[in-house]
Records
---
Amino acid sequence: MQETAVGAIPAPPAPSPAEAPRGGGVLHVALIGNPNTGKSTLFNALTGMRQRVGNYSGVTVERVEGRYRDDQGAVTIIDLPGTYSLSASSPDEEIALAVLTGHAPGIDRPDVAVVVLDAANLERNLFLASQVLELGLPTVVALNQVDAAEAAGLRIDAVELTMELGAPVVPIVATRGEGLDVLKSAIRKAPGLDRPGRRFELPAEAAAALKPVEQALVDAGFNASAAAMEALRLLAVQHVGKHLSGVPGLEPAVAAARAEVEAAGLLPTSLEAESRYGWIGGVVDSCVTRAGHSGRTITDRIDAVALHRAGGPLVFIALMALVFQSIFTWAEPMIGLVEGLFGILSSAVGGAIPEGDLNSLLVEGVIAGVGSVLVFLPQIVILFLFIGILEDTGYMARAAFIMDRFMRSVGLHGRSFIPLLSGYACAVPGIMATRTIESRKDRLATIMVLPLMSCSARIPIYALLIGTFIPPVVVGGIFNLQGVTLLAMYLLGTVTALVVASLFKRTLLRGQARPMIMELPPYRLPRVKSLALSVGHRASLFLKKAGTVILSLTIILWALATYPRTEPAPRMTDQQAQEAQLANSALGRVGHAIEPLVRPLGYDWKIGVGIVSSFAAREVFVSTMGTIYGVGSDADEGSSSLRERLRGERHGSSGALVYTPLVAVGLMVFYVYAMMCMSTIAVVVRETGGGWTGVRWAAFQFGWMLALAYGSALLVYQGGRLLGWG
């Protein structure tokens, strides 16, 4: 593709009144760039702690906004999701495109777009930049990491690049705050500059074929420049996207354009890439000087080990072992501190308020509900910290690359690895992390199996049942049977997730395998401030998503366990009165009602109550057992009194022990597979499309996981009895 002179391209039309910068002194800026360009670091450097995290209307894609002030007033920045293009093939890309074109619900079109480029990877980054330049927005280019580019022997002429792009280019080093004042000045001046527009020409046949598509978009409210960019993009995508689904006549026009382009001997799927990269090649040749640079970089030397065919997987396994060992080791003191603080708060509130329903509501409902969420926050924060370190250093992309071959063998995409890894802490952020998977079918397959990864909420159940019923005997002269049992539960969930994903990808979610294209960024030291902000945002999002649901349902469960009231019989002990109250409460009646269903698994009505209560969140099972057996709702997995009650519990009719090692193993297997988390269900509904579409996917997931849990627990218990292990 021949590069054309800038002057040969017609200037984009003047902005309409609707596109003019808004008044009031507040400038609205959209920050966009490829992953690993330092975009988030720049956002944090500009806005500091003046940030807020929410969601875009109708979707669960995070909406991160920040603000700073200059001498002319306030500037609000929206940090758009990192993306390699505006192809709208993933939720993140759809949101980025919708915001930039002014079609995101509840968000006005930004006044300025700031495109962040990695100076060391200019050619690849310019693809996205060329798309943004066409949208008719005042644009500023932040040329980041120029120090790393110079270290690699690359010198970029920012003035020449400005002339080529038709937009101001500001060299910066976001990690050190260099160039930020100049960038802020360029952002403030941008609305008064000419709009960049398209910088290359299409073949005449393709340009003519796309005219009806462009006209349909203009009729729908796009300006001419943005319509041209959208029309070219639509040639290569499989669907027009949600934000364009209502444009009259658009899909027939796109289909006709594809046919005309093919008739002209051109490939619709590659036309955009060929046109853009043809122009980009000329830009790079004119702006970049490559100095002599001999020898391997630090990144090359590290990758020689980290990506080695044999050594790479070993390094990966060692790092993952370190991560999970740290999660469980480092979190223990903090978990104990949280439990202690809530124990003190519970005692203080319980002692200050007279006995009665209000006391019970606050202590066993509100405080217990909040505590049940916050007690797991240390583990989740530590996992987010490690994930942030792996991302910021550049290793996370290598881990996905290493896992890609294995993930493909079971039908999953290499990018599924990161969400599945997150699932070990909590399925909620894990499911949200699937937004980076471009294929909807790959994304759905990952979401459908992700709750099988043993999250931290299962740990109290495993710890209670293993510590109570599995003897600490030595196995093989090295291992402890309790540790082996815990490992078996984790492996059971993980292996099953991979098997079920393979089944889904070969049946319900069958689709063409897509190659994983991922940038391997240079290794860098993470910045403490940026890391702290990232972990804080993720933790707050977890608390908002999971905490509110768990708190609400804990209060509901308290009410079900408290009413209707049962008057204690004369000479009845407190423990007997508590058991009688629970047995006759609404929750107890539910337990009695489902007892015939759970009896084949070896469970009694009390275990049934624990299962029903843990639909709010799995970890509620332990506190429910504490309430049922008179130990108290604040009982945890290490409570010796609760363990003694479980060991001594007997069936009233036969006098046989309720809990045996076989029953305990079957119950753990049930919790490995059962979808016992309302927070996860709520996120699945939103991430799979929302509305009835999301409800159907969530119901399907809940149904097959419950059937698998019941069938597996039945097999363990009844099979064990046939083998004489009962």
Note: The two ends are 76 Å apart (CA to CA).
---
Amino acid sequence: KKYIYKQVAGKKLEKEEAKELLLELEGCSGKEVERDRVAIIGIGLRFPDSDTALEYWTNLCERKSSIGEFPKERERDWAEDEERHGKKYKKGGYLARIDTFDAALYNIAPSEAKYMNPLQRIFLETATEAVEDAGYAGTRIKKTKTGVYVGMDHTSKLEYPPEEHKSNPLSITGSWTGILASRVSYVLNLRGPSLVIDTACSSGLVAVHTACKAIQNRECEMALAGGICLEMKPAAEDDALSMVASQDDKVRTFDRSANGTVWGEGVGVVLLKPWKKAVEDGDHIYAIIKGSAVNNDGTSNGITAPDAEAQEEVLTAAWEDAGIEPESISYIEAHGTGTVLGDPIEVKGLTNAFAKYTMKKQFCGIGSVKTNIGHTVAASGMASLLKVVLSLQKGKIPAALNFEEPNGYISFATSPLYVVDQTREWKRERGPRRAGVSAFGFSGTNCHMVLEEAGQTERREESGTGGMEVWTVSARTEEALLELLKRYLEYLERQEVIGKEAMCYTANTGREHRAIRLAIL
């Protein structure tokens, strides 16, 4: 410190540079420091039984299991496929429909939409929802330096379009994997980087990590980041991954009866922005990403085997990047696949990581959304992230399902962890609520992220005069307008009091105005 002060006094070091060095030294001393933070200002999602954040949260709180039979509506898609004929499909966490798309909404010709892989269609729709959720629809986001980062597991996702249509030129852009991200940039006219990231099961969370670093490095002003997983052809009973599949079609994370995982589908997208800029612009902030880290197992017991030491290292690296005291973390959303050996390795990594900073026992809750919706592979990190984001916002931690007795290889009593097996209020004990989210890839690539509740930020103040406001809502068709009004009603019935001035401001300025319109005074 004395050396830095001397350099400033001798005019050999700028004050701002000195400040950064001093803050870095404070970080080395174990004290919490202020770093560049990233705000989550918009979310879009589709998971089994959930097309909105409200449905997702309600299902989690009601302890609903969304693992079931393959939808009959989608089974008809393969009725004439002789290869699939007569095969029994495995239970899983499936989306109800993946074949619907309003091409005209995005100015895409029906002939082109036909050749777009459902992955492209659904990610585009969900990314658009995240933008609209943040109040940046239409001209507010066009030509901005906004990046798009999407995690996708490419393996066995290339069945679209069918072989007989692959000679059509539109099938190239419609199914080329790199265009999964670029399609969003093209439709929304975004000028930031567009990347598709594949690290298998950790792809989605790695995409968010990469987007955060791009924002901090000034490569983009905002970023859409997420992950997606769809099964165009359903998994049959003789699927190649049956060796890690649950025998009773339940994910029993951390439980003595755990015997494997169940596969699921989903997509989750967040709109990210520098925290200071989000506060300055009056954006609604769901949660703050304090820090994150990525690493790889390297040479372990096997190329697909998890490694406790590597997981420990990625945890401590993320905590150091966040500049926090690990003991201030009160919940971890685990990767938690429900496999006999994977779960104990994850707990071992967490226990060893915490032991470097504290000897306190059972102060941090742990759970896994895979018990609700299954393992959504490249989207699994997003399912976990969005569960934590909503939990921080609501001040409540939903229970993990199917936990009765601890896995025999795990000693929770001597660890810093306990399983959240009952939905509980999330009390503040040491400052703001904080949580960690883990996604460990079948590829060996691991990611951990630290989140913090948004806290109170300055809001657009209501005048309180009781004057009239104009509220506008619009859609492309009357049917869509009625559906939108229904969603507004469901939202208002479940939310706390919302000021009419703020509500009207967002509806009038943060949404696109379409052909079928309604205005209410």
Note: The mean pLDDT is 89.
---
Amino acid sequence: MDQLGVLTGPYTIKSMKPCDLNSSTRKEILEYFENSYSLNETLFTALKNKKAFYVCPDRLRLPLIFYYAHTATVYINKLILAGLITERVDMDFETLFETGVDEMSWDDTENYRMGGSFQWPSLKDVVTYRLKVRKIMRKVIEETPLKLPITMKSVWWAVLLGIEHERVHIETSSVLIRQLPLEMVTTPTGWKHAPINHGMGAGKNELITTKATEVTLGKPFDFPAFGWDNEYPTLSIKVPSFKATKYLITNKEFLEFVEDGGYKRKEFWSEEGWKWRCFRNAKHPSFWVCSSGCKSGCGGTLQGFTHCQASNIQHNGNGLNGNGHSNGYGYRTMTEVICLPGDWPVDVNYLEAKAYCAWKGPEFRLPSEAEMYVMRGAQISADAGVSCDPVFCNDFREKYNSDMIFNSSSPVNMFTASDSGFHDTFGNAWGWTEDNFNGYPGFQTHPYYDDFSDPSFDGFHNIIVGGSWASTGQQASWFNRASFRRHFFQHVGFRLVSSINTSDIPPIRVISSKVHILSVGSKENMCLLPYTHKNMFVPTANKQILNDTAGNLNKMLYKQYGVISNNYYGNLAEFVDGTMHDNNPLQSALVLGCATGRLAFHLSRTFSKVTGIDYSSRFLEAAIALKRDGTFEYSDNTHTKDNSSKTFDDSWSKKKVVVPFDIDRSRVLFKQLTWIPNELKDFDLVVLDFLDRVMNIEAWLLRLWEIIVPSAIVVIVSPTDWNDEKLASVIGQNLKCVDSIIMVEDCDGVEHIAKNVTTWKTKQN
């Protein structure tokens, strides 16, 4: 059952319901945590040997040892942020396993941690670490004062965040295990696949017509269950009538596309999709198995591996799919290859799903997020509390293939249809939508996980909803909405949709904002729809992406380098110099919000190492160019209107920034980050100067005490309504304010912004 010794608690394959935050007891939260921790560890008993932990099932992901350790480190990192603990278990682990990868494209090069000479910790050491974290979590849950209801402002939110994050990765790891060579996996004890077919079979996948209606997406901020930031607040959308297939598209249906040469016919694929298909040389869905030696997509030492070999097909016995159709394909579940189950939903990425839609006809597309809500049937108001969410209902496991009642997909006709007539509106396989992942109007990040969703509001991530057979806890919730890049593999399927009236605008939300990618440049969202109505296009809810424009770059360069008299950045540099006169030696400085780098370069006169951090790729490109070349050209408008104020417009003239010759640019390092990771540490000085630009001010304050040496100085530039008392209420008990002034950012008449500049030291000094 546990031949590799990966369990730090009981073996379990049965999932529990999430917590009702209005009424959950300490005992119930503890049981839910234990269940989540054990369920995740039980998944790893599917690995047959230690080697399986250290190979790369997917060239764009990390080895499974990372995911086994990652969820445990997130508990500690979030408890630290919440102040529930003050001492770490193992900072090296909590740095190495802190963050995974989200590749930009399907042809990204492998991450350095995937192979080469990198040495991951031993499985024994990681198991020991997980056991220590388990004990700490038990202690925190047993001893932290519990006040109901638990809300987003409660420190208990960090506990629940860690638990639900663990459940997210149960599904992530199940997909990666599904990609490993068969000889590296085994079927866990009690594992149960769904039957190949149900009753007389699914039959024809008919189109069902819906009535025009209105649905409410999202939930209120005070909803009494844990939620990820992208699930809030509510948004009401009018949905015109449409037709959709009553089932998810099945393997049997998709086989017709494959046999008709669908993977060879460019006319069915988007430009992005065809490039991906050619790069992968895809001939069929990733989890199908043939005997042609198709590329596996694995990485590292498995780079040349193929699942598509004759021995796997022979493993299927007679090669029948349960409907008497001999198709020549096998089907990879998480731990076995079986005959291709014709009535199970096909698992494909968005690009493959769109090619199938085009093959079926120009009138077909994928559903919108709002249309998926319509297919679920009658909606109960969120005012009813958790009873409005099927995952909290006692009959959830009877109605849907979710919560790991099976350990595979199931026939699409096996579970009862919704009152709208659609099957598998929850569970079995996630469903791709046409909508780009984005926040609802009024979106807010949470300080414990500021960058959970908003980096993906870029137009290159599409929403998936409904959950799969492997979705548990909040992952299976009515309100859960996840996203992946369009080339990504998960347990995801799709269904066809067609508008009734072509003049009706489908309720699809496509991000119109351009995204600038560091070292790549501006990248415009390629809308893969024939519709171009302006109502479909919305700006990103990530104001950081929204503000990362060429105009703002030019404006920042002018403010940092072009203003001659009373330059705010020069004044700030002088102020910082004045705070450091008693500190010696001066080794390492950090500028959070370095923008185009002026303060970072200035500090290199004093510090042997200066790190500049910003989220803006345009700002950082300018800073990196200045570090490399010593000069950078930007646009500046020097004329005035009505002889009184400057304006920034298209008539800007070219100006050149030059880094002073006495600055050793090799001392400065610039990085793009959307949070303060554990790799940032041991600074003698930290200057935080972009709180007016970030998504969540609190998120950038919570770890300041932990990234400095005991004698360090912290300088915080904040909006004037964030005085030292308000800052102290967030920073906690570890830092004390020793100075506070008001500094005006005066950009030669362009703008006058008053800012609060405070100086902090550790309370021991």
Note: The longest helix spans residues 156-179.
